[in-house]
Known about the structure:
Blueprint: E1 2-7, E2 14-15, E3 26-30, E4 36-40, E5 47-49, E6 52-54, E7 57-60, E8 66-68, E9 71-73, H1 98-104, H2 115-199, H3 202-300, H4 304-313, H5 324-334, H6 337-368, H7 374-386, H8 389-412
Parallel strand pairs: 1-2
Antiparallel strand pairs: 1-3, 3-4, 4-7, 5-6, 5-8, 8-9
Helix pairs in contact: 1-3, 2-3, 3-6, 4-5, 4-6, 6-8
Amino acid sequence: MKIITFGRHTNNEIVINDPKVSRIHLQIIQDDNNNFTLVDLNSVNGTFVNGQRVTGEVALNPNDTVRIGNTAIVWQDYFLQQADTPVNPVETPVKLSKASAYLSGTPANPADKPKLYRKTWFIAAAIIVALLLIGGGAAFYFVDKANNERIEAEAKRKAEEAHALADEKRQEAELRKVEKTAIDARIAAEEAAKKAAQTQSKKDKEKARELQANYESKQKEVAAKATELSNANQKVKNLENDKKNLESQNENLQRSVKEQEEAQELLKKEALEKEQRAQQEAKNAKKSVDLTAEFSEKLLEFSEKDCKKVCTSLAFQNPTGKDYKKTLLQHFNKADNTGKGKILKAVTAETNAAKNKAKELEKTFDAKIKSVSDPQKKSFKQRFDDADNEGKQSIIDEIATIQTQHDTIKQKK
Length: 413
């Protein structure tokens, strides 16, 4: 964002020497999306965009023309050349008049560094830290994503092992079929043994031994298959446990990802709030500088009596009853922008009242001086021009007294 002020006062970024231009006439604001807004700051003679007078805020297009007083502003030259480079309003240098330096105690030498700049750098550092936090959260999110892909690959491998286990179950079915065959062979061997025992036939006995041997062989084969089946069952149990563990890890991972997303959203929200606070503080700081400059200029022209009137109207305490200008200055420096505006309004009102009073006294003086002799007119005129309002009133009273004396003498004659 970039903000540029235009006006006759030297406190503006762009100073325009035109008597019809107000001291602080207008602002033009460029936001981060290169949109432009013109703000008329309650100028006396107004601001004209494309020939039409505008008040308050109005959007600007790059081809719009702006005129204040008798001066056409080529405002695009101050923005469009740097459209690709965002400008922070805090980084815009602020010119301080001699009156501002007198009020705030800040040296007018540009080599000095005001406190306002240090505060600006602190705000900029806070914004940078917030952006770094957002970047760290994003990096952590992508690391968790990589871990999730690794766990999914492990689950795929476990699934392949489960497929192999299914093959082992098919082998178990075949083992049961072999076991049934062995049982049938044993039954046949027992029946043959019975027949051999009954007939005492040598041939039958040999056949019985052969069947017995065949049975024992089948028994060994069944035992081996049973061992393999037991191992396969154990593997199935292990795979089921692994599956449960993977499901639990997947749930934990999803919960962790959700927490990270929420944390990232919170970081973004905090960063946005900090940026908004920084922008508001920058605006408040600039407004304080503007108020200080205008107050300083008026205070330099203020007499001690004028300061006393303002302090009395604002109920400012002054135990010593002296140096009311210092008292008014102390209250202004301690006040926030609202308080500064209130004090400045009172000073402006007193200034306007003094000017109006001076005009009335001048009219009265012009009416009274006509009755004075020519030699005295020049003396009275010079004294009247050099006097303040109270002095002017005294001179008018003196002329009235002389006039009364002259009238009395005429009546006696």
